[in-house]
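Hi everyone,

Forwarding the result from last night's run.
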Amino acid sequence: MASALFHARLKAEREDWEQWLVDSAGTWATEGQAASANSVKAMASRDLDISKHRSKEVSEAFLEMFDLVLTMEISHKEALRVEFPRLAGRIFLLSEMSGPARNIEDPYGLLLKDYEKTAQEIEGYVETGFAEIMKRVALAGK
């Protein structure tokens, strides 16, 4: 959901949005799984289609493609920084882009209302942290 929400914001804000690589991978994901039905519904209510999304397992090669890696949970950030110390300077929490570090809980397996709540929370962080994200990506690209 975070990838779709960020990509939508990027498309609304930047003429060069198609040149950006925005993707997602799971810290403990199983490769190739479809997005949960409630994720698809939560995004559809925002006119975003993630029905073709398939999960990817995070790897160093995957992370190397990105100037900035944003996680949802502190444990994910810490795990990635430990496993890929060379890339640690690229790895942050989404919440850190607009304020103090805090977890965005994964609603996996819960009700649609829980997915909607998480989507709304992610949307808020994307909105309030967008300028900081752009700043960090620009700095990393230099």
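The two ends are 29 Å apart (CA to CA).

Cheers,
N.
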